[in-house]
């Protein structure tokens, strides 16, 4: 926070990691095997970083978070038309997404670059949601964060979240980096 730097690293859920049972699994199985601690340990080992705190939400949380901020404005780089993600069509260009459009935007993968575009969309969405969350002032800021807290599980206290939000406001002047763990999708036979 003191440096006003945010870094987003997208790690696809199908990334293979070695979990506490000594076996290789897709990352998305970590929580089922050992809870949040297993997921944090696996990501820390994969990224070779210390993880001090975590936060997570699910689809229901995303829909509520988007509703709390009255939509999330993103630059949709490629039209979103993925029937596996949603029946919603989202045209390219700057859009303010409602809750259901946000889920489609986050889930879609049928792009020319697939997972890379999905990761870029997820980062763009996260930055915009954070910017919307931090845009209120005074008591409105505290009230918005309190409303959002119900939909995000985290080990941070409310005072820590408030301090982080204050340190990063306005988010548009912070430095934001993003990246994607490199790799390719292969089946179990290595193809």
Summarize the topology.
Elements: E1 5-10, E2 16-18, E3 24-26, H1 30-47, E4 55-56, H2 59-68, E5 72-76, E6 93-97, H3 99-107, H4 115-134, H5 138-149, E7 153-154, H6 158-168, E8 175-180
Parallel strand pairs: 1-8
Antiparallel strand pairs: 2-3, 4-7, 5-6
Helix pairs in contact: 2-3, 3-4
Outline the structure in words:
It is a single chain. This protein is α+β, with helices and mostly antiparallel strands and 191 residues long. It is 42% helix and 17% strand. β2 and β3 (24-26) form a beta hairpin.
Outline of this structure?
With 191 residues, the protein is an alpha+beta fold. Helices cover 42% and strands 17% of the residues.
């Amino acid at each position: 926070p003191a440096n006003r730097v945010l870094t987003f690293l997208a790690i696809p859920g199908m990334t293979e990691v070695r979990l506490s049972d000594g076996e290789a699994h897709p990352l998305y199985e970590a929580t089922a095997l050992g809870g949040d601690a297993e997921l944090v340990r696996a990501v820390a080992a994969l990224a070779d970083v210390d993880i001090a705190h975590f936060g997570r939400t699910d689809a229901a949380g995303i829909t509520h978070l988007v509703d709390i901020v009255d939509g999330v404005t993103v630059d949709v780089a490629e039209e979103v038309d993925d029937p596996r993600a949603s029946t919603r069509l989202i045209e390219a260009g700057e859009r303010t997404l409602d809750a259901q459009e946000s889920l489609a935007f986050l889930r879609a993968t049928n792009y020319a670059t697939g997972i890379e575009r999905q990761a870029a969309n997820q980062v763009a969405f996260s930055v915009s949601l954070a910017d919307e969350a931090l845009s209120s002032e005074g008591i409105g800021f505290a009230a918005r964060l309190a409303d959002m807290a119900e939909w995000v599980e985290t080990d941070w206290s409310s005072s820590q979240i408030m301090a982080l939000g204050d340190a990063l406001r306005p988010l548009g002047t912070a430095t934001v980096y993003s990246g994607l763990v490199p790799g390719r999708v292969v089946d179990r036979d290595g193809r």
